[in-house]
Specification:
With 174 residues, this protein is mainly beta. Helix content is 10%, strand content 26%. β2 and β3 form a beta hairpin.
Length: 174
């Protein structure tokens, strides 16, 4: 009878540990320690979208509420499977037409499925590194700030200028 109670207790503990919600306490390299109630986990990895030739990396943040899965209820084999919103960390959007990635510094990437718009709101420099070129295919290209072009420019159509054109010697021309 005592042996049966011990096995039942072990099974109940394993089932209770299979899916847990905790808070990330620390992150180092590819491992995080998660506070699970009054106990801290052993260092564990987190699930990613891709982890082979193509890979994706985004560490959980300290203080982030996460879902911990422990196969067989063994916490030593546990990993972080995702995160949950909290009052102090609400969703980046609740619009079902939008996919939004919001960063801690305020930068955002927004795709609106109904309009087709893709918007980058960034706080620093936007860089495109493309060794063989960048090809924009659009009926119009609008630049609302200044432009500094460090190489020759080739124009395949007519040009219109709303201001004066000045060459490198300061000569005005049309």
């Amino acid at each position: 009878m005592s042996d049966d109670l011990g096995r039942i207790d072990a099974l109940e503990r394993a089932v209770a540990n299979m899916i847990r919600v905790g808070v990330v306490k620390s992150v180092e390299g590819i491992h995080a320690i998660v506070a699970l109630g009054d106990n801290d986990s052993a260092p564990m990895q987190w699930a990613v979208r891709r982890a082979h030739n193509d890979s994706d990396g985004w560490s959980p943040a300290v203080g982030e509420q996460v879902i911990v899965l422990a196969p067989g209820g063994v916490l030593e084999d546990a990993f972080i499977d995702g995160a949950l919103y909290r009052d102090q960390y609400p969703p980046a959007t609740v619009n079902p037409d939008e996919h939004v990635t919001r960063y801690a510094n305020g930068a955002r990437l927004v795709h609106n499925n109904s309009t087709g718009d893709l918007t980058f709101e960034i706080k620093g420099t936007f860089r495109v590194v493309a060794p063989t070129g960048v090809d924009f295919k659009s009926p119009t290209f609008k630049q609302s700030g200044g432009a500094d072009i460090g190489q020759d420019i080739a124009v395949g159509g007519d040009g219109r200028f709303g201001g004066k054109v000045t060459d490198s010697d300061g000569n005005n021309g049309a």
